[in-house]
Specification:
The chain is mostly helical. The chain is 54% helix and 3% strand. The protein has a 3-stranded antiparallel sheet with strand order 1-2-3.
Amino acid sequence: MCAVKDPVVIHKGLDNVYVKESKICFIDGEASKLFYRGYSIEALASHSTFEETTYLLIYGSLPTRSQLEDFTKRISLYRSLETSLLQLIHSFPITSDPMDVLRTAVSALGLYDPQPASDRIEDRIDKALRIMAKAPTIVAAFDRLRNGREPMPPRTELSHAADFLQMLIGKTPGDYDAHIMDVAMILHAEHEMNASTFSCTVTASTLADMYSIITSGIGTLRGPLHGGANEAALKTVLDVGDPSKADEYVVRALAEKKRIMGFGHRVYKTWDPRYVILKKLGAELAAQKGETKLFETATAIEESALRHLAGSPIFPNVDSYSGIVFHTLGIPTDLFIPVFAMSRIAGWTAHAIEYLQANRLIRPKALYVGQKELPYVPIDSRQE
């Protein structure tokens, strides 16, 4: 007697499918909790730096003072771009999407690696740090070139966040702006097995090099359903334009069954803890700059949406205020996703390295539902 096979279950979008054990990130979507290596995102945003958080994610523990100093110096010395790579960026059309520029330039970085064939874990980490260090230089250089300005060289004495702002804007940022940028990068550094992290993990499982791994992540983040939400959320706020028009917009959007950008998340069923931090920073930054209307409009949209969506598990996410923070810092809208990528390289690296410790090639299956045993018809006998 033949055994009856269990029906195949298709997990659309791989919802609730676990691909590995991990010690890197824990999300409690029901309780609005996010932890990097056991440390709450609130603690890291309040006390850490992007460099220290990156060390924590990759190496698994907070560094000592000397370890952090060495790590920070290592990253700062990697920021400069090879002359030929800078020339390559200069050759790109000024109309290029900055994410396409970043993806192409990161791939090209692999051609300049001093040890391209080495796949020791420490060498893989070193390659990833080279990419992470150079990514802000690439993004800032392209933005200046497309605006007819010469790229600013990186400065090793500045923090990673501050150096990006000075290369982009052309002057040393104030301590507060640098701090806000640093916290924003911490908040975007890691978020468990999202689409781009999974893409990096799949690529890592083939034993590909770190440049291919990070390029996979950038390509996946490029999609509007993943990396582009903060850009869309800011556009919504700019289109609404005034707090007095927020309720009218929300009512119309809900009636037309349109998504209100900056709301809802696949994992969080209540507040995104990163949103809470960014909203507070956004309010402080807007007040300091004397540019409060945008923030007030975003808050009015939020309050109206929460009122009309009361009882549903739809709450503000990290994108609702991250775009406003970046915009107030003077970052062009089409650089929001590259900034996201610059930050997330830390998490991508951590997951790739972790998976490689007990690697198995990722090879899922697809349930075939097509026809079988079709007769082959010669081309002259086929119907037009």
